[in-house]
């Protein structure tokens, strides 16, 4: 069984770095004075803060779930052989 698909390609690595650097998560909190405070979070900063606080459940959710989906996607496509 060949494991060539596990080698990172420069395009995939750059795309991953761009995505985890974007402010993707947004939180809106109503203040007691009647206004709103809006905060935007970057996934890379959330992951590092979870590690610093040793809060493992959200850390594993943010890392583990996408890795699990990627793992199943890769192995489901390994057995696919298009008919020519």
Any overview of this molecule?
There is one protein chain. The longest helix has 23 residues. The chain is α+β, with helices and mostly antiparallel strands and 84 residues long. It is elongated. A two-stranded antiparallel sheet has the order 1-2. Helix 2 crosses helix 3. A hairpin with a 5-residue loop joins strand 1 and strand 2. It is built from 3 helices and 2 strands. The chain is 55% helix and 14% strand.
Topology summary:
Blueprint: H1 10-21, E1 25-30, E2 36-41, H2 43-53, H3 56-78
Antiparallel strand pairs: 1-2
Helix pairs in contact: 2-3
Give me the strand/helix succession.
Answer: HEEHH
Main sheet: strand order: 1-2
How many H/I helices?
3
Global shape = elongated
Q: What is the assembly state of the chains in this entry?
A: single chain
State the helical fraction.
40-55%
Percent of residues in beta strands:
5-15%
């Amino acid at each position: 069984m060949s494991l060539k698909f596990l080698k990172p390609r420069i395009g995939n690595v750059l795309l991953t770095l761009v995505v985890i650097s974007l402010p993707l998560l947004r939180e809106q909190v109503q203040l007691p004075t009647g206004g709103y405070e809006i905060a935007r979070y970057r996934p890379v900063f959330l992951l590092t803060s979870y590690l610093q606080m040793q809060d493992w459940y959200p850390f594993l959710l943010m890392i583990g779930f996408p890795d699990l989906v990627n793992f199943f996607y890769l192995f489901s496509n390994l057995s696919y052989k298009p008919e020519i």
